[in-house]
Amino acid sequence: MRRTFGLVLAALIAVAVGCADNQKVTTQPATSPPPTTVPTAQPQTTEEASPTQSRPASAAVGDVLDLKGLEDGEALAVTVVKVVDPARPENEYSTPDAGRRFVAVQLRLKNTGTAVYSDSPSNGARLVDAQGQQFDPTYEDTSAGPGFPGDVTAPPGDSVLGFITFEVPTDSRVVKVQFAMSSGFAGQTGQWDVRAR
Asked: Which class does domain 57-193 fall in?
């Protein structure tokens, strides 16, 4: 009887060990921290940002931002003077497409560098709407005022003033104007917040 009981006990132990070998149980030490979410990326500081991807300097319409170009001595004090939204076409031949409207942005560019500024300002300008969509300029003119010529030249100390026209969807709410020197390829981008109208 005692021997039979010993055999049954040994068999039960063998079955229990076999079952334990077939199961993979993963445990976490009691001292390990609870899982956390991955933090979102923080905006780069000027020191962390690469020369071609710096964080836009931000301002309000009417404020001046100092921006640098790609070449030594290229620098502008840039002001978004005003935003005309919507802007009426200059004539019956320059009308926006169906479902779209014109927005005219007046910029003042003062050459604060030591090199002559020679570029097309519209190449470095963009509008951003509330959904994050970006819009490049159009070549149309509006009744808001004179636009920039194709190429602008300003010696050090000189200022130029002109409108840049954009064509955006009728239901887009424009929230930002962006500008960068060197036809948009400079490392610094100025950004002006457009207040709700």
From this structure: mainly beta
pLDDT per position as a tens digit, 54-107:
556 679 999 999 999 999 999 999 999 999 999 999 998 889 999 999 999 999
What radius of gyration, in Å, describes the C-alpha atoms of the chain?
A: 32
How far is the C-alpha of 46 from the C-alpha of 55, rounded, in Å?
Answer: 7
Nearest to 78 by CA among 94, 63, 56, 99: 63
pTM: 0.71
* Cβ atoms within 10 Å of 130's Cβ, excluding its own: 11
- Chain centroid offset of residue 107 CA: 20
Extended beta strands in 21-89, E state: 57-60, 64-68, 75-87
Residues 109 and 86: their CA atoms lie apart, in Å, by 23
Distance (Å, whole) CA 49 – CA 59: 19
At 170, the amino acid letter reads T
Residue type present at position 11: A
Q: Give the three-state DSSP class for 25.
A: coil
Are the CB atoms for 97 and 89 separated by under 8 Å? no
Dihedral, CA of residue 179, residue 185, residue 189 and residue 193, to nearest 10 = 40
